[in-house]
Amino acid sequence: AMALSGVRVLELAGLAPAPLCGMILADFGAQVVRVDRLSRSAAASAHADVQARGKRSLALDLKRPQGTAALRRLCGKADVLIEPFRHGVMERLGLGPEVLLQENPRLIYARLTGFGQTGKYAKSAGHDINYLALSGVLSKLGRKNENPYAPVNLLADFAGGGVMCALGIVIALFERARSGRGQVIDASMVEGVAYLSSFLWKSQNLGLWSQPRGENLLDSGAPFYEIYRTSDGKFMAVGAIEPKFYNQLIKGLGLNLDELPFQMSFSSWPEMKKTFASIFAQKTQAEWCSIFDSTDACVTPVLSFGDAASHQHNKERSSFIKNDQGEVSPRPAPVLSRTPAVPSRERDPFIGEHTEEILLEYGFTKQEIAKLYSDKAIEFKNLKANL
User: Fold this and answer.
1) Which residue in 27, 61, 157, 348 is the catalytic one?
2) What pLDDT digit, counting tens, does each position of 6-55 carry?
3) Is pLDDT at 228 greater than 50 in this prediction?
4) 298, 241 in Cβ contact below 8 A?
5) What whole-number distance in Å separates Cα of residue 274 and Cα of residue 288?
6) Which residues, by range, are in coiled-coil regions (predicted)?
7) How many CB atoms lie under 10 A from the CB of residue 11?
8) What span, in angstroms and rounded, lies between the C-alpha atoms of 143 and 213?
9) CA-CA to 167 of 20 to 30 Å: which in 68, 212, 258, 288?
10) Quick check: is 334 in a domain?
11) Are residues 296 and 357 in the same domain?
12) Which entry of 47, 127, 311, 375 is annotated as an active-site residue?
């Protein structure tokens, strides 16, 4: 059995962070039901979930009282509810935590939002770049003399949002094993990414960030912590911080350490960057790999998704998996020795594909399901053409 086997999760369909949270739980064994909007709604088609691995789909219309009543009943038998809506939406539906936890005191009610449940921006719209900005982290990202730079939407949406929320759920499940009681999780992406950046906050007095953005040790200021273009238009990532690693970098580049400025001479860094760049530009990525792969110079190739999946190291660890449709994606991490994740290799579910199956599992009778269907509160994938 996987670590989360037997845990029943209801994930209300939403954008990227909540689906990742649900997929993590599913990968490690939880029975995750994605509660979808009916497929005929514009919102359903606009919010395609590409992180539905291992989930089943129940199509429910929460705009109808019969739909909200059904979800309320489902929550009575669930362990976890993940809801991604803006502050107040669930309360307006009569599905707030004060209602659902009274009916199911063991329920873990996870609220995953950008700004959190309280505060000035609690009811405001936003995206990863906004949460990253408010956390203070965005001010640290970017090169010298350039605007701050948001690295796609990984940090706030997924790391600060989806992953932190999954961590909160697992912590709450662990605590519930002792107390028998559920609780509400207020997962704010602003706070999640701020917490993720604790090292940046706590290292400010160490001098690591004393220079303007883009001129420090770890933010592209140092020549030995940088990305360089190769002769074939590819790139190598250099992270030779410690002197013993830096020495091996210098050796691999064919330079003489005694003829170079001191490694930590800030004023020499711009010129050293030019020197390193000119040398890296003389060989292909493969040639540099042959030079550095057997060393501790902390130099690695910058790989495309396709190259990452086929790289020898990743192949030896089976770091990427292929589903039944031939799609490649990262395998769940971290790896557990005794109860590892066994991710589903089946295709992602269609909206409403498992509606009847799930409702029966949660105690609904066939007559009740037929009534919900006639009331247009649910949808079956196999009956879609008749709707």
Assistant:
1) 157
2) 999 999 999 899 999 999 999 999 999 999 999 866 555 545 789 999 99
3) yes
4) yes
5) 18
6) none
7) 28
8) 6
9) 68
10) yes
11) no
12) 127
